[in-house]
Amino acid sequence: MGAAGFERNGALKVAGFLLATGVLLVFAKSIHYLLFHTIAELIAITVSFAIFTLTWVSLKHLKNNYLLIVGAAYGSIGLVDVLHTLSFKGMSVIPEATTNYPTQFWLTARFIEALALVLAPLLIRRQVSFFPMAFGFAVLAAAGVAGIGFGFAPATFIDGIGLTEFKVNSEYVIIALLLLSLVFLRRIRSEFAAPVFQLLCWSIVFAIATEICFVHYVSFYDFVNELGHYFRFVSVVLAFIAIVVTGVQNPAELLFREVLIKDQELHQLSASLRATIEASPVPMLIHDAAGQLRFSNRAFDRTFGCTAAELGTLPGWWRLACPDPARREHLLPQWQARINAASRSGAPFEPLEITLRCRDGREKTVLADHAPLAHAEIGEAIITLYDISELRQHREILQQRVEERTRELTQAKEAAEAANIAKSAFLSNMSHEMRTPLHQISGLALLIRREPLSQSQQQRLDKLDGAVGRMTNLVDAILDLTRLDADKRPLLERPLFIEELLDEVVAQQHAAIAAKGLQIETCLSPLPAGLVGDSDLLHKGLQHYLENAVRFTAAGQIRIGVTLEEEGAEHALLRFFVEDSGIGIPADDLPRLFQVFEQGDNSATRQYGGTGLGLALTRKIAQLLGGDAGCSSQLGSGSTFWFTVRLKKRPENGPLPG
């Protein structure tokens, strides 16, 4: 029989039960109304306690908060309905019970029921505990019962007149709450199986019909009151079938529906995972905790020429992939040791590089990975085999190329160093060779000056002396630069007297400064005592800076000075600077300044003189002494040239360096 057949069969059983019980109630009514009322209420009380009991015994696995909240309420509802039944007119069980007691107990139970049906859909996805909820409903029930027993509850029925305004209004409040609960229930219909949802909705609809009837009766024995009890009977039976019958016969539909949904999601994830693995171009193999091979994808079957079904077990796979017993044994401690290490630490499995044999005898180098499957059967794990045979070949080829390139670079470096040494030697020799004729020209010019000369001849000799001087400066600069390039210039470590050094540099340029009418200022910040270093190199660096400042400053002032940048126990970093108010340098030209034979504007050599070697030489000196050199300038507003050097500090009471 199909699902539709089962549903039709279930509907027929429900209809048959309702019809039979309805006949029983009609028969009881014909005997006595009290018997009719008692049977109807006992059915409702039984349903209440059944729902409460079912919820209680299912707490360990119950994930449905709707049932949890409703079940927590029905224990208290059933107890109040017992009092309602026992206090009904003619029962004579509760002493001094008035005609108000049954309706007052009724309103108390129905209010708790309506409140639970409103809260259940609202809190279905919240963190809810059964016992606090049951205690809360019990407190409400106890408060209502106490109010009735002590006479605090308003009157609900007056003999000969009928229902009071309080009773009618209370029923309307309960009807409103039931309607609201029906709206909220429809919003969470996906939490229930369709039959359960429909039964719950119809149960609430008949409960609303019951309350409407109990708004309009005048006597406990009139037809409207009787009709309300029939509606009440249908409502509780539908709730019983939706919750108790479904919960017992098919708990996955109600009590453990969330577990069922999670199980379905798990199967869907597992199927999706299998599909993803099947489509992967990387060979993959799934095995269980017992070592049975459960699945292999097409890439595995194609690469190794066999399937998981053919291999059967994990040991069968290892025997095929690694036929040599000794090698296979060694491979399997390694493999199991990495699995154990990953299991203990919780860290990922460390992939193992191994060479495996295919069925046709070919060998492949693979990177084997192992990982448990999160969304699969317990103990299942996946082996992923990344083919790195070609990668290994590429790696070996790349390594060979790197070695060849390294050899080529080493040879090129050695050739460049040799060429640099040859260049330095050539420049040094040329400088020495050029000094001899320059000295001869200078000596001849001096001899000629001793003879009587005309004014024009005197001017020509002055130009000759100037040209010889510039040539001598150029030769000296080239010689210094080649020595520093070739590291042939030894560094001297002698006591430094910075103030005297500044004075000497300024004195050398005194004539040129005075000729232009420039102001010169020396700035010296407090410096550590006992500094040692190469004063000749410092002198050369400052001299080139000051010569440039004088050359490019037509008017204004020049500042030359030293500041302390940082100080340690054994060293101090000093910053030497020369600041002028000259023509300034365009920002685009600053990066070229410290290159050999470069100036901010190469035409400046013709206009202002200079060799273009001074700044490059100063940077060489600064770098040789553990510092650097640079410049900041603004066109038309002057420039500041600086260089830093790291100087040693002579230990206190230590010997003077030689």
Walk me through this protein's architecture.
This protein has about 650 residues and is of the alpha+beta class. It is about 60% helix and about 15% strand. The protein has helices at about 5-30, 35-55, 65-85, 100-120, 130-150, 165-185, 195-215, 225-250, 255-280, 300-305, 310, 315-320, 325-345, 390-450, 455-485, 500-510, 510-515, 535-550, 605-610, 615-625, and strands at about 155-160, 160-165, 285, 295, 350-355, 365-370, 380-385, 495, 520-525, 530-535, 555-565, 570-580, 630-635, 640-650. Helix 1 runs antiparallel to helix 8, helix 4 packs antiparallel against helix 5 and helix 18 (about 535-550) runs antiparallel to helix 20 (about 615-625). The longest helix is centred in the middle third of the chain and has 61 residues, at about 390-450.
Key features?
658 residues, alpha+beta, seven-stranded mixed beta sheet, five-stranded antiparallel beta sheet, 14 strands, disordered N terminus
Quick summary:
The protein has 658 residues and is α+β, with helices and mostly antiparallel strands.
